[in-house]
Amino acid sequence: MADNGYDRTRQDVGNILGMEHVNVTVPDQDTATRFYMSTLGLTRDPYMMVGLENMWANVGHQQFHLPTRGDKPQVLRGTIGLVMPDLEALKQRLVSMRPSFDGSAFSCAAEQGYVSVTCPWGNHFRVHAPSPEFGDMTLGIPYVELLVPAGTASGIGQFYKEVMQAPYTLTQDMNCAMARVRVGSAQCLIFRETTDEIPEYDGHHIAVYVANFSGPHAWLKKHNLITQESSEHQYRFVDIVHPETGRKLFEIEHEVRSYTHPMWGREIVNRNPAQNIGGYARGRDVFTAVG
Questions:
Q1: What is the dihedral sign for C-alpha 250, 256, 259, 263?
Q2: Pairing, β 187-194 against β 176-183
Q3: Are strands 176-183 and 168-173 parallel, antiparallel or unpaired?
Q4: pLDDT tens digits, residue range 62-117?
Q5: Contact (CB, 8 A) for 76 and 148
Q6: Digit-coded pLDDT (tens) for 240-270
Q7: Residue 222 backbone class (left: φ over 0; alpha: ψ -120 to 50; beta: rest)
């Protein structure tokens, strides 16, 4: 049969099926509600964590988990990418809500091709409109970009390839290397080297689902890297190490879930943030996210 010229590796998604949530603790739920719901336009999960001590904020098929734990918030060491269907509506919400965040770390700016937003506690977001770069995603978290020490990106990529069985690409960007790890069909983890000082790790985490659940666990357990045996369907680890030398390269807790985890593929409800009392449109309460 003749070669048709397709690059079959472009469709390889690897072992990590998807990144479900980013977890950062917040000092108070009131400010978190104003930022994640009223400003970003996200949706509070109506089924889970409906009390006053935690909140799950839906963004397409992904979430932010926002538990209240002490007075010191967790700040991810990098940038969280978002895709939203209407950047102009987002800009209007950002401007109207800005005064309510006076005295905090909140900021926002329209950049070339995206909107930059910093939450009241210093977490950075880069909000994009849907585009082919993010597959068919219309609302969601397409990437988490983490700043890592110079000279570590290649080893981090090898860790994901050999331990987590996820493909990666290594590129050079502005004199620093960058490893991009594929997560399912439309998401990635980006590890961008920097020579700037990186803040001390404060315990924030990401949650991923994997198809081969026992393989990575066996390797991590052999190297004493498992930090929590959560349940039959879940375990955790923090340290990313060079798979050959064992040298620790970076810290970010991974909540690793199996494909058989009860929450895999659960329905996540998203509202249409354009709805309001003054201009209510019947039948348009729900936003059906793609991707």
A1: negative
A2: antiparallel
A3: antiparallel
A4: 999 999 988 899 999 999 999 999 999 999 999 999 999 999 999 999 999 999 99
A5: no
A6: 999 999 999 999 999 999 999 999 999 999 9
A7: alpha
Map out the domains of the chain as residue ranges: 12-258
CA-wise closest residue to 21 among 266, 290, 233: 266
Residue with tokens 């990575």: 216
Q: Contact at 8 Å (CB) between 117 and 40?
A: yes
And the tokens for 210? 């994997």
CB atoms within 10 A of CB 229: 11
As a whole number of angstroms, the distance between CA 139 and CA 125 comes to: 14
Q: Which two tokens stand for residue 116?
A: 């930059």
The answer to whether domain 12-258 has CATH 3.10.180.10 is yes
Is the Cβ–Cβ distance between 258 and 233 less than 8 Å? yes
